[in-house]
């Protein structure tokens, strides 16, 4: 077994050993279920220190390449396809509900209608044409929260974050995330073999003091949501953004990735770290919730040192995001009726959320006003609350999937989908929140 590793071992560090084992697994010379020798035996055979081997094993565990299997010891893990496991768990069992408040998606009735396109989109005459339509780039730059050195368009926010994270992070790295945060981000980091470090939040997002303490873990990147944090609805104030920037400025090699997922349907002003740290900030603006999930478009602005390698690597794959879709987005952003429709949606989401929050307060549950489509409902017991809501025909998302660092039980409720009967639904949410832990008969 060690011969297969030795033939791939060119770097005698922990990372080099982890990569050698990974290559052996990829080549098929180390098969799933194969038992690894004890750490000291590996160290002696490969002329490495036990500390180096232990560190390599830790990297491989985080990447899911090896696992501890009881009395069998450490073995090569069964191959698996990484996917949104946490998010699927949070949304499990959603069929048959009268009102599904688990999804976090926009209300289709509030999306703008597609305008009639005046002629065809400017078609590329070459694979080397500009990947972003110049007219769209000009419009985006005029509304960006800081002057971006490089601007790009990707196939949705998670596509952008995936490609940026893949460029910035390596096996065994750590990345700071909000606690709670969006589960697909945690699934993505796990797929990359990156350890998430959850930092607590309050009504204005990530806490600067907790972020400062988390920097002792030597992270490579920080992922944050500047407004309408999914799931809590928290948004930064100007002071909070400045304090977070002050903490990150002490680590100029650390990049911050901002995910403005609600963007045009957010009712709060946008405060960006890029206004303070333009060389450390990559800002992602999604158009899914405002203009349609199937549009699959997000804009990204940030330092060229980060985005240029990503865009060059992209030329080996999809190359660029469809200019036809970019032309459609440009029309939606400039067409009068479309702009008005997005404005009405923004007001309606704020109204719906305010009515649900008001109803919860009347029932004795005081939540911050917040922003966006979701609210973070504290409950006595997660499973009991889900069952209570299910009995009323209401689905919600389990909060545990959103908590990388743990915390009190919650449910994520997509208040933006509650179009009517706000007081009655708020009363049902409050009743579910107080449902005691279910006792299991013996």
Notes on the protein architecture:
The chain has 442 residues and is an alpha/beta fold. It is built from 16 helices and 15 strands. It has helices spanning 2-6, 14-27, 39-46, 50-63, 85-90, 134-143, 157-168, 183-191, 208-214, 238-248, 288-291, 304-314, 323-334, 336-362, 382-391, 422-433, and strands at residues 66-68, 74-76, 99-100, 150-154, 174-179, 195-202, 205-206, 221-224, 255-260, 281-286, 298-302, 374-378, 394-395, 397-398, 410-414. It starts with a helix and ends in a 9-residue tail after the last helix. The mean pLDDT is 89. It comes from Paractinoplanes toevensis. This is GntR family transcriptional regulator. GO terms for molecular function: DNA binding; DNA-binding transcription factor activity. Residues 11-79 form the HTH gntR-type domain.
Taking all residues together, what is the mean pLDDT? 89
Distance between the termini: 48 Å
Largest sheet: 8 strands, mixed
User: Which word captures the global form?
Assistant: globular
By secondary-structure content and strand pairing, the structural class works out as: alpha/beta
Number of E-type strands: 15
Share of helix among residues?
25-40%
Number of helices: 16
Gyration radius, to the nearest Å? 24 Å
Oligomeric category: single chain
Contiguous low-pLDDT stretches (5 residues minimum) are: none
What share of the residues does DSSP label as strand, in percent? 5-15%
**Strand order in the sheet with the most strands:** 4-11-10-9-8-5-6-7
């Amino acid at each position: 077994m060690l011969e297969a590793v030795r033939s791939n071992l060119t770097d005698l560090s922990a990372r080099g050993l982890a990569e050698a084992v990974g290559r052996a697994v990829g080549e098929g010379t180390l098969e799933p279920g194969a038992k690894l020798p004890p750490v000291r035996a590996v160290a002696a055979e490969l002329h490495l220190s036990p500390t180096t081997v232990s560190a390599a094993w830790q990297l491989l565990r985080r990447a899911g390449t090896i696992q501890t299997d009881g009395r069998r010891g450490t073995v090569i893990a069964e191959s698996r396809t990484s996917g949104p496991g946490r998010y699927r768990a949070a949304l499990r069992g959603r069929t048959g509900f009268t009102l599904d408040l688990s999804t976090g998606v926009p209300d289709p009735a509030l999306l703008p209608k597609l305008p009639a396109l005046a002629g065809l989109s400017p078609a590329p005459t070459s694979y080397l044409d500009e990947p972003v339509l110049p007219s769209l780039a000009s419009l985006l730059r005029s509304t960006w929260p800081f002057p971006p050195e490089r601007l790009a368009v990707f196939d949705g926010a998670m596509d952008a974050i995936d490609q940026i994270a893949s460029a910035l992070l390596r096996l065994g790295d750590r990345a700071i995330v909000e606690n709670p945060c969006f589960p697909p981000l945690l699934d993505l980091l796990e797929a990359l073999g990156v350890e998430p470090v959850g930092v607590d939040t309050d009504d204005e997002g990530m806490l600067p003091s907790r972020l400062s303490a988390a920097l002792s873990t030597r992270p490579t990147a920080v992922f944050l949501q500047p407004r309408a944090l999914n799931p809590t609805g928290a948004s930064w104030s100007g002071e909070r953004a400045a304090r977070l920037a002050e903490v990150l400025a002490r680590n100029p090699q650390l990049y911050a990735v901002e995910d403005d997922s609600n963007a045009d349907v957010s009712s709060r002003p946008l405060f960006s770290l890029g206004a303070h740290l333009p060389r450390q900030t990559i800002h992602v603006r999604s158009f899914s919730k405002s203009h349609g999930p199937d549009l699959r478009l997000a804009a990204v602005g940030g330092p060229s040192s980060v985005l240029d390698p990503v865009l060059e690597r992209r030329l080996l794959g999809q190359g660029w995001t469809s200019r036809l879709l970019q032309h459609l987005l440009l029309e939606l952003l400039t067409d009068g009726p479309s702009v008005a429709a997005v404005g009405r949606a923004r007001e309606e989401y704020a109204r719906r959320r305010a009515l649900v929050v008001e109803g919860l307060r009347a029932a004795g549950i005081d939540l911050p006003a917040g922003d966006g489509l979701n609210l973070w409902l504290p409950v006595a017991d997660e499973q009991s609350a889900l069952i209570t809501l299910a009995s009323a025909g209401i689905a919600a998302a389990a909060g545990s999937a959103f908590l990388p660092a743990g915390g009190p039980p919650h449910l994520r409720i997509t208040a933006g989908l509650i179009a009517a009967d706000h007081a009655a639904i708020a009363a049902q949410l409050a009743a579910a929140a107080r449902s005691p832990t279910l006792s299991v008969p013996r």
